[in-house]
Write a structure and sequence with these properties.
Elements (H helix, E strand, L loop, with lengths): L25 H5 L5 E4 L2 E3 L8
Antiparallel strand pairs: 1-2
């Protein structure tokens, strides 16, 4: 993602990547996405992720 990293001491509300994500939605500004295991030691935390 382009842009500066979020402040780890004072992260933005909701998803910490929403200020610099081109796919952000209103929910991203308010609700932190759940961390989902997608196999082995791989995880995703995004409101756009859908299991298939």
């Amino acid at each position: 993602l382009p842009g500066p990293m979020p402040d780890p001491v004072n992260p933005p509300p909701g998803c910490k990547f929403h200020p610099r994500c081109q796919y952000r939605m209103k929910i991203c500004e308010k609700v932190r996405p759940q961390l989902i295991n997608i196999g082995g030691e791989h995880y995703v935390a995004c409101h756009l992720y859908q299991k298939t």
